[in-house]
Each structure stands twice: as structure tokens, then as C-alpha cells.
Design goal:
Layout (H helix, E strand, L loop, with lengths): L2 E10 L2 E9 L4 E6 L20 E7 L7 E2 L8 H15 L4 E7 H12 L4 E9 L4 H15 L1 H9 L9 H9 L4 H19 L23 H9 L21 E6 L7 H8 L5 E6 L9 H19 L3
Parallel strand pairs: 3-4, 3-6, 6-7, 7-8, 8-9
Antiparallel strand pairs: 1-2, 2-4, 2-5
Helix pairs in contact: 1-2, 3-4, 5-6, 5-7
Length: about 325
């Protein structure tokens, strides 16, 4: 996709967010929100947009990707990210736009949209995650042992026995520990486990290596930001599902993998039941990952459909 602009936007608190735009500057404005939190934008993800029809804006959230920071965790909360999105919209002079995001990107999309519904023309969300502890416990403490018992044993077995009654908090505490000897094995284990849960057919569904000994392996970035957000209930003041009524009447399509173990279909359906104007499109067979071609095709079709609606709204 043709890149139009690339810039760092100072948002205060020691943060500069990296903002890029692509496609047709006269096209339908669309905001793409990456997942994680902490993963950053991958340009390949933007292939779901028709570059001749859309003016696509994507940015690396605070502490992620090419964004700059003095301290990645300082002033890094969901309200900060929502405010950053408004700064970007104003920077580009956009009145209303389509908002597209998946997993954590869907969480942030909903947080932004419920705060600024008048700025939304349409939404396309993939693998809805509402940012609750219940969803994380369901994925790592219920789905994981049910579908990957050996991986669950490896995952929990990394903790001392005293901490196995508080698995998630114990992991996040260690991931955020400043000592590399502490955070290295737990950040890798979290990343690898999450990866298994996100794909239909993982290559190695266990933690078989000595995670402490692999000093040559680059550390994944997302576990640190995820631990920061998840430890703080994603910095949400109120449950998103209780605020989604503010979007009633706005069109939304929820793309959902049938066998998504991280963000299962029940969440998308629960959201749609409270959002008049939204619908769920189930993709099967498919899991969580946007790398699945069937998921990408469904996203492209949904975005095209929403574009037709927006043509009459802009």
C-alpha cells in the first residue's frame, strides 16, 4: 500500500507516537488499531483495505513499535490512548472515520467509540476482547488446560508452588520485574503460550526448552505491555459492554473465528446483543490470528460493505 505520510506526534508525558497514513488521501478515512497491547503496526495487516478507496491511518500506540518514550509504562493507559486517537483525528482534519481493530485493537476501538460516538462512521472489529479479567482467566486457566493440558502443565509449572493459586498475577509480577533473570523466562513463556492459543494448528504446543538458558533469543515486546495493562484491568473505568449502548444506530460488523480460544464467539455475540446496528460474522474454520487468510478475507469484505454505508454518511 502506498505510504502517504510518516511522522512522530508529540502527545506529552515523554511520549511521541509514530503515525503513518496510506492509500488515497481523498478516500474514506479509516483508522486501524493494532493489537497487543504493545505489538505495533505491521504494514502487511493493512492489506485488508482497498488503497484506491481508503485513506488509512495507523499508529504505534504508546510504548509500542516505532513510537518513542522516556518510560514506556508512564502515562500509558487506555484513557491516554483514547486521547491520542482524538489528537490524530484532529491532526488529519477528519470529521468521522471508520474504525477497525482486532483483539486488543477491538478493546481500544470500543473505548474510543463509546467516548466519541459522534466521530464514528462505521466499525469493523475482529476477535472482540472487552478487557476483563474473566476473559483472561477463561483463556489461560480454562481453555488452555482443556485443549493443551501439557502446555498448561508447563505454563503453571514454571511458577513456584506457592504462586500456583494466582497464576496470572504471578506471571505479570515476574514479567514486570526489572531483573532479566526473572522476567526473561516468564515473558517468553507468556508469549509462546499466547501464540499457541491464537492459531488453529500450533507447531509446538508445549514449553519444552529451558527458557532461562536461551539468552540469545530476543525478548518479545508484547508481554511487558500486556502485563502492565492486564494487571490494571486494562485501565477501564467501567465495563465496555455496559457502555456499548452509546453506539446504538452506528453500523458495526464483528468478525469472529469459530475456534478462537483467546477471544471466543460468546463475547462477540454478547456485545452484539447490546449494540443495535451490529452483527456477527463467524468464520470457520478459523481461530484468533489475523494471519488466517479466511479471517483477512472476511475483514476485507466487511470493510468494503461498511464503505458503501459510509459513502452516504460522509
Amino acid at each position: 500500500m502506498k505510504e502517504l505520510t510518516r511522522d512522530n506526534l508529540a502527545v506529552g508525558d515523554g511520549h511521541e507516537i509514530h503515525v503513518r497514513s496510506y492509500g488515497n488521501p481523498g478516500g474514506i478515512p479509516a483508522l486501524f488499531l493494532h493489537g497487543g497491547p504493545g505489538s505495533g503496526v505491521q504494514e502487511s495487516q493493512l492489506g485488508i483495505f482497498d488503497p484506491s478507496r481508503f485513506h488509512v491511518i495507523a499508529f504505534d500506540q504508546r510504548g509500542a513499535g516505532l513510537s518513542r518514550f522516556d518510560d514506556r509504562f508512564h502515562a500509558n493507559t487506555t484513557p491516554h490512548l483514547v486521547a491520542d486517537i482524538e489528537r490524530i483525528r484532529e491532526r488529519f482534519g477528519i470529521e468521522r472515520w471508520m474504525v477497525v481493530g482486532g483483539s486488543w485493537g477491538a478493546t481500544l476501538a470500543l473505548a474510543y467509540a463509546t467516548a466519541h460516538a459522534d466521530r464514528i462512521g462505521a466499525m469493523v472489529l475482529r476477535a472482540v476482547f472487552l478487557g476483563t479479567r474473566h476473559e483472561l482467566e477463561r483463556a489461560f486457566l480454562s481453555s488452555l488446560p482443556r485443549f493443551y493440558p501439557q502446555l498448561y502443565a508447563d505454563f503453571v509449572g514454571l511458577l513456584p508452588e506457592d504462586d500456583r493459586s494466582r497464576v496470572l498475577d504471578a506471571y505479570w509480577d515476574r514479567i514486570l520485574d526489572a531483573d532479566p533473570a526473572v522476567h526473561r523466562p516468564f515473558s517468553i513463556a507468556w508469549h509462546d503460550t499466547e501464540r499457541v492459543l491464537s492459531v488453529l494448528s500450533p507447531d509446538v504446543p508445549c514449553l519444552s526448552e529451558d527458557l532461562s538458558a536461551r539468552g540469545d533469543r530476543p525478548l518479545p515486546r508484547t508481554p511487558f505491555m500486556e502485563a502492565h495493562y492486564f494487571h490494571n484491568d486494562c485501565f477501564l473505568d467501567a465495563p465496555l459492554i455496559e457502555q456499548v449502548h452509546r453506539l446504538n444506530g452506528l453500523p458495526g460488523i464483528l468478525i469472529q473465528g469459530r475456534y478462537d480460544l483467546l477471544c471466543p464467539p460468546e463475547t462477540s455475540y454478547a456485545l452484539a446483543s447490546r449494540w443495535t446496528g451490529s452483527s456477527v460474522r463467524v468464520v470457520s474454520p478459523a481461530g484468533h490470528s489475523m494471519e488466517d487468510q479466511s479471517i483477512r478475507s472476511a475483514l476485507t469484505a466487511a470493510i468494503t460493505e461498511m464503505a458503501r454505508l459510509m459513502n452516504g454518511r460522509l
